[in-house]
Amino acid sequence: MGHQNRFEVPGMLRTVAFGLLVAASAQASASVTNPTIGRLLWSEEFNGSALNTGVWRTYDGNGCQINLCGYGNAELEYYSPNNLSIADVPFEPGTRALAIRAQRQTVGSNQFTSGKVDTYGKVQIQYGMVEIRMASPSVTTGLWPAAWMLGTSPQTWPRNGEIDIMEQGHRASAWSAAGASSPDYYVGANVITWSQAACVPGNESCAASTAWQTKNWYKPQATLANRFVKYRLYWTDSQMRFTVIDNDGEHDMYNAPLPVNSTSLQAPFYLLLNLAVGGNFTDAATPSQVTAALPATMYVDYIRVYELDGKGEVKLGSQVVPEVGKFGVFTDTTTVNNKLVAGTSSDIFLWNSASSGAGNIAPFEGSNVMAWSYNAPGQWFGGSVQSRQIRDLTNFRNGTVKFRIKIPADVSFNIGIGDTYTNQSWVNFPPNTTTYGLVRNGDWATATIPVSTLIGTKVALQSIADIFMISSDANRFPTSTFQFAIDDVVWDSGTTSQDPPTQPTPAGISQPTSTSVKFSEPTGTWADVHYTVNGGGQLNVRMQKEGSGNAYTVSGLKTGDVVRYSFTYWDPSRNAAYDTALQSYTLK
Predict the structure, then answer these.
(1) Per-residue pLDDT tens for 73-103?
(2) Separation of alpha carbons 338 and 171, rounded Å
(3) What's the predicted TM-score (pTM) here?
(4) Is 225:140 a contact under the CB 8 Å cutoff?
(5) Buried-exposed string 257-290: b where 16+ CB fall within 10 A, e elsewhere
(6) N or C end: fewer C-beta atoms under 10 angstroms in the chain?
(7) Which of 257, 262, 217 is CA-nearest to residue 241?
């Protein structure tokens, strides 16, 4: 579908609470070409009266609200929740589906509105067979329907990975070269990751696409406009296969399975559904070039995730556990409760290779150090330690960030932090001045910044990605070459000991009659119950207050019915929502 570059430093080019787990036992290997499809792990049937916001997050904006106007693809629409609904499908009586409607409607500078949803922080998928039954409108020129996935890592696109299960509305050069008569007779898939080999002039993001000079499409005999087909992704830790199930059978988009050759494709992903208008994927760069008939609606009947040869898992709810005590960002010997390891759970980035390169200063402690050489007076420098997964550092709000640095006394620099919402905050260390305890004498010295000062007014501690950043002072670029190094970066909550949070007394189920069950959750604030009956579609219900807790009763059941359930509840003591483990009950 295209990229969403979440982080940007002005003037610089830059090179997931407890959760519910539905899993299948993994085998040594799983086949995508001769697959055994197992039990249903999760589904969204879109049969309710409204979109389930416990599963889906809606978009409201044109990308500028996250400093990414046009969502990085030069899209022309404004995404609005008003363009989303659960509706009857006009060309298939009896079917209800998610309806995403694109139309000509002016909002600010945008002449079109449409809809977009995702499951970020709510549903994450890792391996298995994903099946999406959907119908596109006539795309002509300018409409771009897509069902896709992004990695849950907070790292910038394409390092987090992108899996396009289907997208349509390609440029004429693509569909005509494949021999299609129009874009309504052509649909493709794609996988995008970061690759050093793709770092060439004009592709500064280093995005590597599996669709590059490769057959990755399906050409149906009948138009895809306003009729349902099934799109499938078969996904293991070693291979991916994309297919379309049409009236005449199952068709591969690629000629052969794709190898999973990036660790980003071995991590959980979340789902996205949208109907873009215009953009650099299409031939509509301006509103006047959009020729598709509007309004137009994309329908999604269901999304189902199955075991694939015993492999696959679906995680519900946020998977981010708050860090506690001392958290090491870059350290070898300092005692910490948890820490990042470069190359395994974090990456170290040098932002401007034109001004800086590898240095030769020895470590302050241990055997590792971030050592750089500044080689271009008058130019900016910068770098960061970026976590490969979101870090919740809310327990450190009243704590400190301590680091060691060796840098000439006359160099002014900034230290910063960035969250997954593109917010950043920086503090300045002026030259020849002791700041935050850092003695500026050119030797190794220690700085201690209060977290409350470092995060400023906007950074969200519950969702941190760039956990430590350094940059030159834009008002005082260095005037000579020098070496500098950073080591022993540790977040300290300020408490001597702090155990990970534990969940309260588990919620439960009872059977008041032979045809009903009663769910109960003891917390004094809100709670939701998520349940299925005999493997059917999942229902998500806000429970009713009862005494000091919450309760909800389901009737119309019978002996032998199997109810699988879990809860999401708000814990006021920790100011966060938590998910319980999936449980099962058989009616007696």
Answers:
(1) 999 999 999 999 999 999 999 999 999 999 9
(2) 48
(3) 0.72
(4) no
(5) bbebebebbebbbbbbbbbbbbbebbbbeebeeb
(6) C
(7) 257
